[in-house]
């Protein structure tokens, strides 16, 4: 009965969302890819908001139900039928009364299984499609025949976008860039390599009183070079989204200086996405606990490797879920990199045992590896393990591992957990 109710609700909300798009005719930016979708979506929102009235999908509302909810501007009803009925009513009000509706919608579109993106893209038909990056072993791959099948599903967003729309592609990912040849669309590329329309360069860390506080880089376009500072977050995981946002703005004739100022002044670091948090005993936490995939972990570890510190570098890594037959291999590869980067590995969960094995294979001393069955147990132990100036990287699959519990135990201000952490 619950499944039938959900299907009916999804169908009604989808019809209402389509009607709202038809009535108000907002421009739609849709973001897809294997990694970086949510951060890219949030950054595009910040940049476009400097010039337009914009709405973005909240959190990771990227599914067959999340996208209509974002278009209608209503909340997820969960298991509460009253809220779902209220959502339907509010959708009807939008359709049949006059409202001040956003000029732009910035939406995230994901795929948990075959057909997910095609189902949404057919009726959404975005004006701008942004493709972030494809992973060698993407999340949710166990529900697809192969990693290539995941890529083909994500391409459906481009297939169904408006013919006169703009395609925004990551120049540095050759699989993503190949879409340009496959589909005849106006295209703007972004990346760190020469040849992209929007190029990032001179990336570095921002330090204050010896502590890391963010990142800085230059955005280059047609001979113009503008410095960009992003405080509270780390890694190319935030540079690429910024470049993607500039590419979207460039397609709409926005000024690079204005976009850079908007990002430097108004961008808020999102919980669980390479977010810097003060830890106890003057330690630093890189909270990347929102979710995990092999490529995302590798990026996070490479960022940790580049940071200058007098303290230890400690990776607190939980299981990566939904990798199917690639599970053991992917976890071991992460462990190989941990051995190169970190002084200590804290492995959390059953699958993370393979991370430990991979680290040992590459020469990490067994005594520098701590193992825990869950994140709560790990967090409580680490409270007494922390030393002055330690840097922690905390990451793992979201709902299975709840790695934010580790952060809550070792953060300097646990009373701000609801404000700073994934919830």
TrEMBL record:
Domain annotation Mur ligase central: ranges: 31-76, 105-248
Lineage: Bacteria, Candidatus Campbelliibacteriota
GO molecular function, one term: acid-amino acid ligase activity
Keywords per UniProt: ATP-binding, Ligase, Nucleotide-binding
Limits of the Mur ligase C-terminal domain: 272-398
Keyword Nucleotide-binding listed: yes
Keyword Ligase belongs to the record: yes
Protein name: UDP-N-acetylmuramoyl-tripeptide--D-alanyl-D-alanine ligase
Entries under Pfam families matching the protein: Mur_ligase_C, Mur_ligase_M
């Amino acid at each position: 009965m619950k499944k039938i109710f959900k299907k009916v609700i999804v169908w009604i909300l989808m019809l209402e969302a389509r009607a709202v798009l038809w009535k108000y005719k907002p421009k739609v930016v849709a973001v897809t890819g294997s990694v970086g979708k949510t951060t890219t979506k949030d950054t595009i929102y910040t940049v476009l908001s400097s010039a337009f009235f914009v709405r973005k999908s909240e959190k990771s509302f990227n599914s067959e139900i999340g996208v209509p909810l974002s278009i209608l501007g209503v909340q997820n009803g969960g298991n509460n039928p009253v809220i779902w009925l209220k959502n339907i009513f509010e959708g009807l009000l939008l359709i049949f009364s006059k409202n001040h509706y956003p000029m732009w919608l910035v939406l995230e579109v994901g795929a948990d299984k075959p057909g997910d993106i095609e189902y949404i893209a057919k009726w959404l038909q975005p004006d701008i499609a942004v493709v972030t990056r494809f992973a060698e072993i993407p999340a949710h791959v166990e529900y697809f025949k192969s990693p290539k099948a995941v890529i083909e599903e994500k391409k459906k967003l481009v297939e169904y976008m408006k013919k006169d729309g703009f395609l925004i592609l990551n120049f540095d990912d050759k699989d993503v860039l190949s879409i340009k040849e496959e589909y005849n669309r106006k295209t703007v590329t972004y990346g760190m390599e020469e040849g992209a329309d929007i190029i990032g360069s001179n990336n570095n860390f921002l330090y204050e009183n010896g502590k890391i506080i963010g990142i800085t880089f230059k955005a280059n376009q047609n001979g113009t070079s503008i410095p960009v500072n992003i405080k509270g977050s780390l890694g190319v995981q935030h540079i690429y989204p910024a470049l993607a946002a500039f590419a979207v703005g460039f397609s709409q004739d926005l000024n690079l200086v204005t976009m850079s100022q908007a990002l430097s002044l108004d961008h808020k670091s999102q919980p669980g996405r390479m977010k810097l948090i003060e830890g106890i005993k003057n330690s630093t936490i890189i909270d990347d606990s929102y979710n995990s995939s092999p490529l995302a972990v590798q990026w996070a570890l490479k960022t940790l490797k580049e940071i200058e510190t007098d303290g230890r570098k400690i990776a607190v890594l939980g299981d990566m879920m939904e990798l199917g037959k690639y599970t053991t291999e992917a976890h071991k590869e992460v462990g190989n990199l941990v051995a190169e980067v970190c002084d200590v590995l804290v492995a959390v969960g059953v699958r993370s045992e393979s991370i430990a094995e991979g680290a040992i294979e590459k020469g990490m001393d067994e005594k520098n590896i701590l193992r825990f069955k869950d994140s709560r147990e790990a967090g409580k132990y680490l409270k007494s393990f922390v030393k002055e100036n330690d840097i922690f990287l905390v990451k793992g699959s979201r709902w299975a591992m709840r790695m934010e519990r580790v952060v809550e135990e070792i953060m300097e201000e646990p009373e701000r957990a609801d404000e700073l952490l994934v919830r």
